[in-house]
Amino acid sequence: MQIFNSMNRRKEEFVPLEPGKIGMYACGVTVYDLCHIGHARSLVVFDVIYRYLKYRGYDVTFVRNFTDIDDKIINRSNERGITWKALAEQYIDEFYVDMDRLGLLKPTYEPRATDHIEEIINLVRQLEEKGLAYEVEGDVYYRLQRFKGYGKLSGKNIDDLLSGARVDVDDRKESPLDFALWKRSKSGEPSWPSPWGEGRPGWHIECSAMSQKFLGETFDIHGGGQDLIFPHHENEIAQSEGASGKPFAKFWVHNGFVNIDKEKMSKSLGNFLTIRELLEDCHPEVLRFFVVANHYRSPIDFSQENVAVAAAGLERLYQSLDRLLEKAAGSVGGSSSLDDRIEAWRQDFIAAMDDDFNSAAGVAVLFEVSKEVNRWLDVEKNSIDPQAAARVAEFMSEIGEPLGLLQETPRDFLQRTTGKADGQLEAAEIESLIAARATARKERDWAEADRVRDILDENGIILKDSAEGTKWQRKR
After folding, report:
1. Where is 199: in which H helix or E strand?
2. Any alpha helices (H) in 293-409, and if so which ranges?
3. From CA 399, how far away is CA 179, in angstroms rounded?
4. Which residue in 45, 56, 32 sits closest to 290, CA to CA?
């Protein structure tokens, strides 16, 4: 298995620290609002990695935290006139509603920062004893320039950071780059007793303390979105390795950004999309398919056209699975004439996913199976017997599971997404797919253009390209 390690910026062979076991930590959400599509991507990516590692037979300890105390939480709770704890509890509950709909597995542990104040304080004290932290009037800061390895993950240079630093309003710090490990609480703010007085933890120290508690001082995989590389993950390394003197994580895995109609998502642009809003018009598994049909490190663009492509692609897979199950009705288990073919597909899927969790190539294996199924049933009439159909259907579900796809019965899915059990595309869906194909061709993404055309072809749509545009008609 090869994984792209953000630390060294290249693919490396993955060998667990302990044979057969993997420790993995993914940074979770700060619970002051509903999750957005950027969260959805990161959460689905690490859910797929978790599922696939389990599929490959590893004993995985997966930790994903909640940041349940933070300036944003305090400010939002004050705005709403409720306690910080009530606000955090509300959005943790809302988080689970969205994640359950997206089909995420529960991690092994889901620690909350406020349940680990003792571990956080102990870690800060370790840093203080080693001369890597200092206290000023109840605040504790990390002496960044004393950690020699700072910048090795992000590629940042301390001298460049210093020269580019803005004038720091807090002249109590030894350096403008020093960051807070412990914050003295202001009047009326939540606080916990500590050796430095009443206060609360800084953001970065939470993940260092919780990952160490559940996974030890060194573990296999640490992950999150690319936006966390600096400063969050860089600061985690400084804290954790500064305290232990040992490597923190063996592999660093980061997923790419999500753009909205080719623009960066932001509230100021009015294109900030929550998962809750998206799922009003989009089936949860379609949203998941949209994520996994792209390589996790690539940027992805969320648009109505691209969602239409995802919906049609997933419907195509469900239609093939439905046809197999119909053919297999009443069959009995046992070997079939297609077992060798199934095993070849299985190895193709494993090869794809072993190559840096390439879920896009894994999805391509499902499409290859779907194409063969339709050929057997439409062109080579009766070339697949019920027993073989049952085995292929079982296999599609088998490799769909690590991706979190094909988790519903086909009839239920098709009825919910199309309103018809046969899943026939509506005219508006066809036009969206044609527009998506035109965009792909304009951008010279021929593979995507061909994929969209295959989806239309599998759904019985004939395309006719001309200088005036693309016309379509249904196969008779």
Report:
1. strand 199-201
2. 304-328, 339-354, 359-378, 386-403
3. 45
4. 45
Q: How many CB atoms sit inside 10 A of residue 440's CB?
A: 21
Residue-wise burial string across 332-354, b where 16 or more C-beta atoms lie within 10 A, e elsewhere: eeeebebeebbeebeebbbebbe
Radius of gyration of the chain (CA): 25
Instruction: Provide the angle, in degrees to the nearest 10, between the axes of the packed helices 359-378 and 446-458.
Output: 40
Per DSSP, helices labelled H in 165-233 are 203-215
Are residues 77 and 83 in contact, defined by beta-carbon separation less than 8 angstroms? yes
DSSP 8-class letter at 443: T
Number of neighbouring beta carbons within 10 Å of residue 143: 20
What is the pTM for the complete model shown? 0.87
pLDDT tens digit sequence for 352-407: 999 999 999 999 999 999 999 999 888 877 678 899 999 999 999 999 999 999 99
> Tell me: the pLDDT tens digits for 39-83?
999 999 999 999 999 999 999 999 999 999 999 999 999 999 999
Cα–Cα dist 30/216, whole Å: 23
**pLDDT (tens digit per residue) in 220-259:** 999 999 999 999 999 999 999 999 999 999 999 999 999 8
- DSSP letter at 52? H
Name the nearest CA neighbour of 226 among 6, 468, 457: 6
Q: Domains, the chain, ranges and CATH?
A: 2-259 (3.40.50.620), 304-474 (no CATH)
What does DSSP assign to residue 18? Answer: B
Q: Is the dihedral of CA 223, 215, 146, 206 positive or negative?
A: positive
Q: Three-state SS for 432?
A: helix
Return the closest-CA partner of residue 203 out of 225, 186, 180.
180
Name the region of 249 (left: φ>0; alpha: ψ -120 to 50; beta: rest): beta
Kindly report the average pLDDT of the chain as a whole number.
Answer: 92
423 has a pLDDT exceeding 80? no
Extract the tokens encoding 188: 């009326």
